[in-house]
Recover the amino acids of this structure.
């Protein structure tokens, strides 16, 4: 499935075409009418789309001069007293709306809708229509979030407040289908919260999800709630962390982060500002865009994994620079994405043609598709997947299997984990591979590829992909990918296991000494410490040349060559048997620090910040997190983990290269305290 740029429509008025802050749509007499709103000095626009005509202006209206309050960040078409109204804000206990005619054009301004109780100022809103003609409305603002029932005549009844962080739903609110009725999801400045609305009208809270739960985000910008494949998922966009996350919300209110994607140079959701979703034929599609001058399209698999389908970059005549808002809907068997951008006025219309509707099948054994665009997902044991004539998506299971795409442009999604998968009819240039499930696979150069008589063979660690071409000819492995993979980076989600970090003997720890979380020892010429066996000391006398000395098997460090001097000594010890093992949890904690968040265990201590600088360059970055992750999964790194020794009685240094001050007597005796920190090991002693 590919995105294409169809056209850009404008209202002809600069105040309505720039600073578009919200987009929504409604179906009117078989056509799609798309509505937009701008900032306080602008107004509303309506655009019309049919299968016979491109997106074009349908109507426009300035805000009423006596309107109070600023427009909300969202729009919604809801039932009103005399018909549908476009809801676009609210203040002082009333909602601001514009009445709509039967053809979707704007009528006279609708009277304000009284709120029985709610936020004083409406900043975020979302509405979910129900078959009864009414629906559920969520309003967020001024640190409050409430739900309302809207009946078919537009009357509102309060359903209650949704508890969450004091910041309310400042970063986004979404109402979607729930296990019994509806589910509302909202974003504060750093975590997701919400509630289930049951069929009895009761609100049951959903667990808050934040950095400590694996949702490592910074500067969240948007949330969307979807139902897919028997589950309920919140899609979370965050500009600061360049990320798109999927959080599953269970019927009992528990949550779990199911996927976490980071934008790469081949995708287009860096600095993501908005996310949109739509469902067609049992398949859910997701669009995301922001500061990366384009839009990326995904599909959501069972279990909550996102699969990248396409990314459309801004181009001459098809400008998508700095996307500020997105909306997606389905019409005439196609996905339609509407994008507001900062550098071009009006509304851009993108389209992804679906073709014939397909089937969604999950399980083990043999799964057969049909003539449409099928989604076949292997679960459990070895499976055989056979697509039909459409552009199918075939997802291999953890035990591998045999995949046959059939005719059409097929996408083969391989999960990784040490299995062997055979693809029987690959068409180079038409079919595609997705290896984003292979942990630690970052570029095509890491793959072991070989041409075979009937296709190609790819291998990465324990994963093997055997590819037979549709025409029986060999395939050059290097032809399967460009120099960079087309999909985003995926952060492995592994529960953090507690590190086996025994506390040092209290007799060896001077009271109150050392950065919190460091191991502290007393060492000297007369008191060797076995823990230092294998350490290397770089001795830098204040007067004289530096020299290096290795500790002996008993941990004794001989500084007699510096007798009668003062100076600094830098001591490093390689990791040894019995030392704490770096885990994936450590890598995720380093990543959280790199994007400005707290580690999973709470506020970072000085020792944690020093340990997070794995490559010891004075800064905590994403590269440090990736190096810790490589160590955790058994790969080599340019800088191996090691113990670095600091002065426990000095203020916390900015880096691990500060060393310890020493004084060696004329007879060669010396003694000092030493605090040991293992690079990459965060939360030591917790």
């Amino acid at each position: 499935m590919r995105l294409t740029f169809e056209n850009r429509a404008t209202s002809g008025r600069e105040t309505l075409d720039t600073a578009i802050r919200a987009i929504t749509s409604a179906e009117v007499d078989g056509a799609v009418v798309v509505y937009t709103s701008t900032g306080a000095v602008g107004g509303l626009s309506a655009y019309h789309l049919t299968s016979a005509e491109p997106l074009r202006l349908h109507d426009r209206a300035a805000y009423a001069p006596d309107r109070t309050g600023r427009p909300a960040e969202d729009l919604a078409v809801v039932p009103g007293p005399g018909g549908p109204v476009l809801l676009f804000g609210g203040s002082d206990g009333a909602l601001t709306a514009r009445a709509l005619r039967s053809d979707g054009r704007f009528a006279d301004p609708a009277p304000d809708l009284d709120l029985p109780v709610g936020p004083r100022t409406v900043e975020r809103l979302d509405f979910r229509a129900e078959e009864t003609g009414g629906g559920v409305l969520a309003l967020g603002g001024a640190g409050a979030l409430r739900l309302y029932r809207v009946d078919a005549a537009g009357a509102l009844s309060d359903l209650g407040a949704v508890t969450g962080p004091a910041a309310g739903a400042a970063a986004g609110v979404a109402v979607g289908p729930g296990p019994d009725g509806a589910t509302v999801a909202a974003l504060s400045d750093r975590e997701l919260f919400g509630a289930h609305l049951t069929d009895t009208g009761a609100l049951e809270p959903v667990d808050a999800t934040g950095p400590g739960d694996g949702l490592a985000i910074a500067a969240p910008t948007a949330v969307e709630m979807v139902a897919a494949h028997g589950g309920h998922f919140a899609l979370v966009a965050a500009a600061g962390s360049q990320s798109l996350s999927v959080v599953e919300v269970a019927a009992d209110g528990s949550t779990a982060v199911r996927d976490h994607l980071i934008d790469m140079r081949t995708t287009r959701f860096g600095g993501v500002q908005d996310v949109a979703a739509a469902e067609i034929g049992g398949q859910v599609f997701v669009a995301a865009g922001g500061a990366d001058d384009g839009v990326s399209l995904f599909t959501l698999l069972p279990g909550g994994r996102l699969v990248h389908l396409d990314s459309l970059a801004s181009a001459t005549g098809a400008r998508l620079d700095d996307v500020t808002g997105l909306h997606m809907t389905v019409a005439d068997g196609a996905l339609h994405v509407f994008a507001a951008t900062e550098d071009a006025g009006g509304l851009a219309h993108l389209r992804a043609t679906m073709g014939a509707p397909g089937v969604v099948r999950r399980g083990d054994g043999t799964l057969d598709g049909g003539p449409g665009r099928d989604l076949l997902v292997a679960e459990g044991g070895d499976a055989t997947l056979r697509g039909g004539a459409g552009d199918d998506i075939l997802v291999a299971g953890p035990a591998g299997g045999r995949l046959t795409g059939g005719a059409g442009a097929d996408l083969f999604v391989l999960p990784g984990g040490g299995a062997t998968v055979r693809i029987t009819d690959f068409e180079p240039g038409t079919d595609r591979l997705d290896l984003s499930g292979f942990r630690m696979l970052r570029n095509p150069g890491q793959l072991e590829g070989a041409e075979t008589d009937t296709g190609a063979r790819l291998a990465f660690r324990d994963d093997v992909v055997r590819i037979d071409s549709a025409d029986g000819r060999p395939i050059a492995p290097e032809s399967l990918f460009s120099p960079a993979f087309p999909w985003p980076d995926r952060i492995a989600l592994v529960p953090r296991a507690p590190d086996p970090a025994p506390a040092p003997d209290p007799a060896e720890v001077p009271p109150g000494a050392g950065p919190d979380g460091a191991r502290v020892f007393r060492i000297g010429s007369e008191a060797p410490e076995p823990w230092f066996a294998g350490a290397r000391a770089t001795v830098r006398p204040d007067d004289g040349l530096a020299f290096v000395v290795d500790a002996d098997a008993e941990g004794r460090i001989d500084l007699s060559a510096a007798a009668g001097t003062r100076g600094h000594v830098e001591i490093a010890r390689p990791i040894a048997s019995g030392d704490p093992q770096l885990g994936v949890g450590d890598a995720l904690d380093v990543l959280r620090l790199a994007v400005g968040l707290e580690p999973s265990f709470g506020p970072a201590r000085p020792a944690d910040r020093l340990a997070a600088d794995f490559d010891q360059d004075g800064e905590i970055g994403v590269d440090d997190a990736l190096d810790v992750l490589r160590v955790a999964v058994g790969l080599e790194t340019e800088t191996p983990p090691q113990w670095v020794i600091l002065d426990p009685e000095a203020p916390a240094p900015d880096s691990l290269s500060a060393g310890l001050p020493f004084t060696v007597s004329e007879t060669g005796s010396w003694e000092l305290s030493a605090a040991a920190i293992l690079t990459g090991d965060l939360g030591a002693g917790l």
Summary: DSSP finds four helices and 47 strands in the chain. Confidence is low (pLDDT under 50) at residues 495-517. The two ends are 48 Å apart (CA to CA).
